[in-house]
Amino acid sequence: MAETLRYAALHVSRTERITPLMQRVTFGGEDLADFQHVSPDQHSKLFFSRLPGRAPVVPPMPADGDVGRWYLDYLAMPELERPWMRSYTIRSHDPVRQEIDIDFVLHGEGDHSGPAAQWAAHAEPGDVVGMYGPQISHYRTPGPRDWTLLAGDETALPAIGALLEALAPGERAIAFVEVDGAAEEQEFTTAGDVTLHWLHREGTPAGHSPVLVDAVRAAGFPDGEVFAWVAGESSAVRALRRHLVNDRGIDKRAVAFTGYWRLKLTQDDALTTDDLADRAEALAEAAPAVEQS
Q1: φ and ψ at residue 116, rounded to 5 degrees
Q2: Would you give the distance in Å from CA 201 to the centre of its chain?
Q3: 3-class SS at 36?
Q4: Domain FAD-binding FR-type: where (predicted)?
Q5: Residues 213-235: pLDDT tens digits?
Q6: What is the pTM of this model?
């Protein structure tokens, strides 16, 4: 987190089930009056109270913006009082109404539904969560390119939708989106030239289907320079990145990649060796040459 981040209390204004497995929650509140949009795929840290009917409480961010010290303070909280922390894309921002939309993928009740999804499924107007953010989602931003490749599963869909809607007239993008089935498809309004491929798992559990990786591997790419944006389940993201760099010959610095979730681990679990390696590589390769519009 950057030193400009501050804590905001978000109040649920309304909810909408936009597909059977996607819940949109609209948040308002005085703390959104000076919300600063930073990128189409901006994300935030959300905090959900473990105590029913209670607003989450987190340690204050140090004046010097030392996130590491803040995180140690957060971990030092008693477990029952320490809110769950999860990362989510801000789907859209309405500066006039001072509201933001965040889309939550629902997994049903049970072991595969985390605290954020369970909260979203039952959210009601007036409920409160906390937020630090927003931040840019990736360490890389697009440089000059002829077209953009977007690839991800439903967890990446809010960011992909925002990225498509932010395209300027004449900008070209090809998107591959993995979802459960046709009922999970969404419509987007964009000024760009977009080719959108919906990939259906048809009942196969998320994280167990090869449809996304197989579709990108089999795709014919247009000529010209490409900027690739890849997000979703970590192992699929890792496989796609290797394909784009090793098989397609795309410059590593032109591939933005983020593992949004891990098949057998939650955000509360420690980073694996692969996770740490991905993070270190992303930071090391974030060259200034690509960070231009």
Answers
A1: -70, -45
A2: 20
A3: coil
A4: 5-141
A5: 999 999 999 999 999 999 999 99
A6: 0.88
